[in-house]
Each structure stands twice: as C-alpha cells, then as structure tokens.
Design a protein that fits this description.
Layout: E1 21-23, E2 29-33, E3 36-39, H1 53-77, H2 83-100, E4 107-112, E5 119-124, H3 137-141, E6 144-147, E7 152-155, H4 175-186, H5 191-198
Antiparallel strand pairs: 1-2, 2-3, 4-5, 6-7
Helix pairs in contact: 1-2, 4-5
C-alpha cells in the first residue's frame, strides 16, 4: 500500500475559508481562491509548472489533520461529544508523522558574514511551508509538542483533553434576557420556553 495514500480522506464539503486547501470530488487538490475552488497543479517530470509533488503529498496529509482539529474544537465549543474527532485527529497525525516526520520539523542552518563575523541562524519548516497559505496553518502547527533539539514531537493536549471550556449557562434576570436566550436557541419567540426560563407561568 502506498504510504502517501494512507490516511488521505476526501473532504466531503469543500472548505469555505479563503485560502483553505481541500480535496475535490475528483480527488484533485484544490484551494479556495477569491471564494471559488481552484485546482492546484502538481509538477510532472521536469516541468516547472505547479507545486512539487512532495508539497502536494504534505498538503493532502495535513488536510485531514486540520479538519479533525476543527471538528474537535467545534464539538467542544458546542459541548457535544468530541472523543471521536480526537480519534480521527490521532490517526491523521500519526499517518503524517509516519510519512514526513513531525509537522513542526525545523531545519536550522547557520551562516557567518565574512565581513562582520556575525552568525545568522535560519529556521526552515519544510512540513509547514507548503501549507502556509491555509488560514489554519498555525492552528495545525500548534497541536504537537515539538522538540527542535531531537526533532521529535508528542501529541499536544487537544488529542486527549478538553481545550475549550464548555459554554457558560446564560444568566437570566429579566424577560429580555429570557427572550434573547430563546431567540438564540430556537430562532423564534416561544412564550412557553421564556416562561420556563423565568420560572414563571
């Protein structure tokens, strides 16, 4: 089995955020540009058109991680079960690490200025660089605890813990508060529910 195909899942609904990468229905790598889906061309052979094949493979493996992170956060925000999304996240992250190493892999190089003797350090992140256009790039980067000295990463808290507090219960001290809560929850006026919230008949 091709290791690059492991864990790649088609995005069922195209990402709607500007700059987001997704896999189209035809399995093509896509990106939202000016609000519309745009097919990313991948270099073939010696051609210079498109992105390198390795970059496309990295992006394809980061998409399910990004989507799982979003799912975990959304479920926690709405106080819904989030463990299944954490399982998907762990699988997607493990597949990525197995294929490319940690998301935050950092290559440090130094150069010395011949005239001044000043030493400059340059940090490159080859696994994040292809994904920089995605608006959730740094969200994806934040999920692992990375050690630059050993180039190893451990899953961060989002893999096993609640990272967003549950929504606070609304404080209702007046009919206006109750009305606001009912409109937010149901989208229309429900007098009976307003009365329940006010503990009045």
């Amino acid at each position: 089995e091709d290791i690059d195909a492991v864990g790649e899942e088609r995005s069922e609904t195209p990402a709607i955020r500007e700059g987001s990468y997704f896999v189209g229905r035809n399995t093509a790598l896509m990106q939202t540009v000016d609000g519309a889906p745009f097919t990313i061309s991948v270099r073939k052979g010696r051609s210079s058109d498109g992105i390198p094949d390795k970059h496309a493979r990295i992006i394809r493996k980061l998409i399910p991680i990004r989507d799982a992170v979003r799912d975990v956060l959304k479920a926690q925000e709405l106080d819904q079960p989030w463990k299944p999304a954490q399982v998907k996240l762990r699988v997607a992250w493990s597949n990525f690490v197995r294929a490319f190493g940690p998301i935050n892999t950092t290559v440090v190089s130094t150069s010395e200025d011949a005239e001044t003797g000043e030493v400059r350090e340059v940090h490159r992140r080859p696994n994040l660089q292809p994904f920089l256009d995605d608006p959730d790039c740094w969200l994806v980067a934040s999920i692992e605890d990375y050690d630059v000295e050993t180039n190893t990463a451990r899953p961060g808290p989002i893999f096993t813990e609640r990272v967003i507090a549950p929504p606070a219960a609304p404080v209702i001290t007046s009919a206006a508060d109750a009305l606001a809560v009912v409109l937010n929850e149901r989208g229309h006026v429900d007098v009976d529910h307003i009365a329940e919230l006010l503990h009045a008949d």
